[in-house]
Design brief:
154 residues; mainly alpha
């Protein structure tokens, strides 16, 4: 099925991967499952930034860049572990998820379709982990009340 065509010819839809979760739209991995469990959990309130956090906007603004940088340093082999953070911080929670999934070691499986592109899939996991954290933040109501995730377009 065609999406659209241009001067260079028709473009095809991207392939559908067997490991794509229909509810989240993400290619799932043990790491992403752990990130979702640790940040969002199964309760009404996400585990991060925290239901009692007085300023979830400031907490997210402070912690998300550090977590993003730490994950990329680890994936790119510039560090051997996520340096722990204070309990309850995004870095500490992420460290728990990475440890539980043995991420990003070879012991942490990637979907079969990505076995020849592990490094690219690890970068994908970084992006998805940040998306999950933004979903957790969004559901806390920081800035006015809980919102749907992903946000609706205007």
């Amino acid at each position: 099925m065609l999406i659209h065509s241009n001067k260079s010819g028709p473009k095809k839809r991207p392939p559908q991967y067997s490991s794509c979760d229909q509810q989240t739209g993400m290619l799932e991995s043990d790491f992403l499952t752990q990130v979702r469990e640790k940040f969002i959990g199964s309760g009404a309130e996400p585990n991060w930034p925290g239901a009692t956090e007085p300023d979830p906007i400031a907490k997210a603004a402070l912690e998300l860049p550090d977590v993003l940088g730490a994950m990329f340093l680890l994936v790119e082999g510039r560090t051997t572990s996520l340096l722990g953070g204070a309990p309850g911080t995004a870095l500490a929670i992420l460290n728990d998820a990475a440890t539980a999934a043995q991420w990003p070691s070879d012991n942490s499986a990637v979907p079969a379709e990505w076995k020849d592109s592990k490094q690219i899939f690890r970068r994908y996991e970084v992006a998805c982990a940040i998306n999950i954290m933004l979903e957790a933040y969004s559901s806390t109501g920081g800035g006015g009340g809980p919102r749907d995730w992903p946000p609706e377009h205007p």
